[in-house]
């Protein structure tokens, strides 16, 4: 199988590197607009193949979309990351144009590809790719929930003093400070999390998760890439291997959770056709209110994109 990663910056290069080291793809194309960057990083990754023992051919190209032809999956990471003091939404004016033009170019050469969007503001950039690609929404979705859930699990593991491997958790909503970690759907080695962590500490962990991206931006001056890169790679693996994994993804809702015509994070079954199924949970009133508030925020930013009249809705 062939995967293209657009954007050879921090997230894109990490995603390509992780995918290559897993050795299940025939070819990875890394594409960037900056002359030489994708070629250099792809060559560096390829030179690690004899040490890591993988056979996936990794090639970099500068804006030459003909080389991406017939990709099975395309990961879109091109666009500006935020700096301290910015919100993800502040990136919309620059990144919408980038995501639109990248999607057009990709669709020209890989009309059957599945698109995994990573660029921020995530939910609205996924909407932008969907409007541009004009394909079934099951083939256009975004990466956020895998990352946000991983942060939530990592913080819980630290608090409990247990392995992060034993934590199962779920998180819904948009990829912003309104995201909704769900303690009622969180367990540790089969034990409900509320039996191991006090209500106060759990609330503090939920709030840290909601601001998890910003915590790293404040430390680094730019946004995270190791966990985001591996999160996107996990989604690509689930698709290419038709694993039918249940992962939280930013998906187009058509009435689920009482919401429609919106991209929002929900649990889905991810397989060879992309989103095979959206899973709808029986949320309680409080959980539903939080998801609705998150959806309201995403819709506001979707309206900003619509008003830019860049892509027709
Ligand atoms: N969904 C999520 O959970 C996450 C999303 N992000 C977002 O991912 C995006 C990338 O982040 P980083 O890799 O850290 O940024 P980066 O600045 O390291 O890399 C972005 C790359 O995109 C390239 N690029 C810009 N315009 C392009 C175009 N038209 N065609 C091809 N390439 C183009 C740039 O040359 C650069 O190499 C940002 O928008 C960031 O906010 C980052 C982390 C997590
Ligand atoms: O915080 C950011 O700007 C990047 C991102 O989406 C994340 O790391 O969650």
From TrEMBL:
Lactate/malate dehydrogenase C-terminal domain: residues covered: 147-303
Organism whose genome encodes this protein: Thermoflavifilum thermophilum
Q: Which InterPro entries match?
A: L-lactate/malate_DH, Lactate/malate_DH_C, Lactate/malate_DH_N, Lactate_DH/Glyco_Ohase_4_C, Malate_DH_type3, NAD(P)-bd_dom_sf
Which positions does UniProt annotate for NAD(+) binding? 7-12, 32, 95, 118-120
What task does this protein carry out? Catalyzes the reversible oxidation of malate to oxaloacetate.
Q: Short name of one Pfam family for this protein?
A: Ldh_1_C
Q: Where does substrate bind?
A: 82, 88, 120, 151
The Swiss-Prot or TrEMBL record describes its family as follows: Belongs to the LDH/MDH superfamily. MDH type 3 family.
Instruction: Recall the GO molecular function terms of this protein's record.
Output: L-lactate dehydrogenase (NAD+) activity; L-malate dehydrogenase (NAD+) activity
Report what the protein is called: Malate dehydrogenase
Q: Record keywords: Membrane included?
A: no
**One GO term (biological process):** lactate metabolic process
User: Membrane-spanning regions, if any?
Assistant: none
Keywords recorded for this protein, A-Z: NAD, Oxidoreductase, Tricarboxylic acid cycle
* Tree of life domain: Bacteria
CDD domains the record matches: LDH-like_MDH (cd01339)
Which EC number(s) does the record attach to this protein?
1.1.1.37
Q: Where is the active site?
A: 175
Chemical reaction(s) catalysed: (S)-malate + NAD(+) = oxaloacetate + NADH + H(+)
Enzyme kind, highest EC tier: oxidoreductase
Domain Lactate/malate dehydrogenase N-terminal, first and last residues per copy? 1-142
Q: Where is the signal peptide?
A: none
């Amino acid at each position: 199988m062939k995967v293209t990663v657009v954007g050879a910056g921090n997230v894109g290069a990490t995603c390509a590197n992780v995918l290559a080291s897993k050795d299940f793809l025939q070819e990875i194309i890394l594409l960037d607009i900056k002359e030489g960057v994708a070629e250099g990083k792809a060559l560096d990754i390829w030179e690690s193949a004899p040490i890591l023992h993988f056979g996936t051919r990794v090639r970099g190209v500068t804006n030459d979309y003909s080389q991406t032809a017939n990709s099975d999956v395309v990961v879109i990471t091109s666009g500006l990351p935020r700096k301290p003091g910015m919100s993800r939404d502040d990136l919309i004016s620059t990144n919408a144009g980038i995501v639109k033009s990248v999607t057009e170019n990709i669709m020209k050469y890989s009309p059957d590809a599945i698109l995994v969007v990573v660029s921020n503001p995530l939910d609205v950039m996924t909407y932008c790719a969907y409007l541009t690609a004009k394909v079934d929404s099951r083939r256009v979705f975004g990466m956020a929930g895998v990352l946000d859930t991983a942060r939530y699990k990592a913080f819980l593991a630290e608090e409990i003093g247990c392995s992060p491997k034993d934590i199962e958790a779920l998180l819904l909503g948009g990829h912003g400070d309104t995201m909704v970690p769900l303690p009622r759907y969180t367990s540790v080695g089969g034990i409900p999390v509320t039996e191991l962590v006090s209500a106060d500490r759990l609330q503090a962990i939920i709030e840290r998760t909601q601001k998890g991206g910003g915590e790293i931006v404040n430390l680094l001056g730019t946004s995270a890439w190791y966990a985001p890169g591996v999160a996107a790679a996990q989604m690509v693996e689930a698709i290419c291997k038709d694993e039918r994994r249940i992962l939280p993804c930013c998906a187009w809702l058509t009435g689920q959770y009482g919401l429609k015509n919106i991209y929002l994070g929900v649990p889905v079954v991810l397989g060879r056709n992309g989103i095979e199924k959206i899973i709808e949970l029986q949320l309680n009133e409080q959980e539903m209110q939080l998801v609705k508030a998150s959806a309201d925020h995403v819709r506001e930013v979707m309206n900003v994109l619509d008003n830019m009249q860049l892509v027709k809705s």
